[in-house]
Every structure is written in C-alpha cells, then in structure tokens.
Design brief:
There is one protein chain. The chain is mainly α and 157 residues long. The protein has one domain. The protein is 69% helix and 0% strand. The protein has 5 helices and no strands. The chain starts with 8 loop residues before the first helix and ends in a 15-residue tail after the last helix.
Length: 157
C-alpha cells in the first residue's frame, strides 16, 4: 500500500543493517582518525602509550598502525552503507572488528595496561554487537523455512 511503511522482518533487518553500517563506519572513522590528526588530545584522554619509547623520533607507530587499520574497516563499512551492500561478509567484518576491540578494551583495562576510559569504547562496541544480533535474528525470522532439496528427474539414476 502506498504511503505505508513495510514492516516485514526483511525490510526492518535491511534498514537496521544500513543504519548500523553508517553508525559503526562513522564511529570507527572518527575514533581512528583522532590520534592521527591530534595525538596530544588523544593521549590526554586515553593516557600515555609505550610504543614510542624505543624509537628515535618518539613516534607512536603502534597507535598509528591500529588507527589506520580501524579506519580501513570503517571506510569499508561506509562504502557498504553507501552501496547498500548487505552481505554476510560485511556483517562478519563489522561483528569481528567490534568483538575484537571489545575484548581488547576489557582485557587490557582489567590488566591495568590501559585506562578505564577504554570501557566507554567497550560499551559502544557492545551496543553495536547488540544491534548486529538484532539484524541477524530479524533476518532469520524473515527467511522461509528450509525445505528438503529434491533431486530433479533428469539426475536420478
């Protein structure tokens, strides 16, 4: 019907998929670019890092490496959002990246290696993962029930 929103599980899942791609892609891009653009403010919030102690120039090579990798994931998610690419590989990338960062945040805060401010990022990653779980469950509800595959007459012996 014209003017009414389609609220089928597939449509709701596709809409949430797109929203999550935009949100996670932008979140990853912003948080990844921050230390590359202004290391001083990044260190002021997240605490000192040790990746510069043995280098001649005092550069933060590990922070920069992690930043460009997270930016690459963010860019990939934004391209998928722009192109409305809703495939399993994109979902796996989004969930794996959020899960990995969540794990790093929690483990290394617990060990005292990074400041508790990283738990804010852990909470954001948990929210993203919860959103992706809703996408997966909603999409599964919209799929037809599986049927046994029948062998065509021409293939039977």
């Amino acid at each position: 019907m014209h003017g009414q929103r389609d609220s089928t599980p597939h449509t709701m899942s596709a809409m949430l998929f797109s929203i999550l791609l935009w949100v996670q892609g932008l979140y990853f891009a912003v948080t990844a670019l921050w230390p590359l653009v202004h290391m001083e403010s990044f260190l002021a919030v997240t605490g000192p890092k040790t990746d510069h102690e043995n280098t001649a120039l005092g550069d933060h090579w590990l922070v920069a490496t992690v930043s460009v990798l997270i930016a690459a994931v963010g860019l990939t998610l934004l391209v998928a959002a722009w192109r409305r690419t809703h495939v399993g590989e994109v979902l796996v990338l989004a969930c794996a990246a959020a899960g990995a960062l969540l794990g790093i945040d929690v483990v290394y805060v617990a060990r005292g290696a990074i400041l508790p401010i990283y738990l804010v990022d852990a909470a954001a990653e948990m929210i993203l993962l919860a959103g992706w779980a809703v996408v997966a469950v909603t999409a599964a509800r919209g799929r037809p029930q599986s049927r046994p595959i029948s062998v065509p007459e021409a293939v039977r012996v």
